[in-house]
Amino acid sequence: MTYKLKTIFSSAPWSAKFGMVVILLFSIVSIFAPFIAPYGETEIIGKSYELWSDKHFLGTDNLGRDMLSRLIFGARNTIGMALLTTFLAFLIGSITGMIAAVIGGWIDQIFGRIVDVLMSIPSLIFALLILSFFGTSITYLIGTIAILEATRVFRLARATGMNVAVMDFVEVAKLRGEKLGWIIRKEILPNIAAPLLAEFGLRFCFVFLFISALSFLGLGIQPPTADWGSMVRENATLISYDDITPLLPAGAIALLTVATNFVVDWMLHKSSGLKDVS
Hints:
Helices cover 73% and strands 0% of the residues. By secondary structure, it is mainly α. The mean pLDDT is 86. The chain is built from 11 helices and no strands.
């Protein structure tokens, strides 16, 4: 297993290697945040907007909390929620998409029309409306974004699944009397796993940016929980004083997004079967 991972890493282009290293570092920081951060997530340890120093490497925020610690805990909260939301979106979208592809008929029509309605509404406006009405709890935040992103996953799973559903081996499985769940699990899913896996990376980027945008607007992850989007908003006033501190969480958002896209681009290239041109 270790040899296989080394082989995959060594065969990847430099952009993908850079992306994998960045993702690994962010994952380590997210998992071990309580042990890496010098202070607690909500601990007030100084005055507001203290400058960078040996005591506070990145200064303090508007309430006197250590910015480095908040940045570290923000990685765990923002990335963790984005992963959970993306998993939920894929669970909903891929299952319904494959069901629609295999069964077709009125099931496909009902699912398709529901998805069309949801996709016709701008995602940000829809999320702002739902969260303003029902509240900004973590449950509603994850559920709202997952449903919105599941529509994109549904379209991909249905389109790729329909190409497989008309194959002879699927028809043979139906004639043998195999149930819907078996056909999806054994015949459809293995043949569309590559594009779905690549889509997972892209969808994670969109969800990650979506959560950060909502937090910046005040409807995402709520204080005192650390979140990169809300950290930009809370400390934006420092930009007027030539302090780059608010740009650090924004830079972390951009870095992880670019790194993930590098890896996804490489995965798409590998799954396409195209050869590198020397």
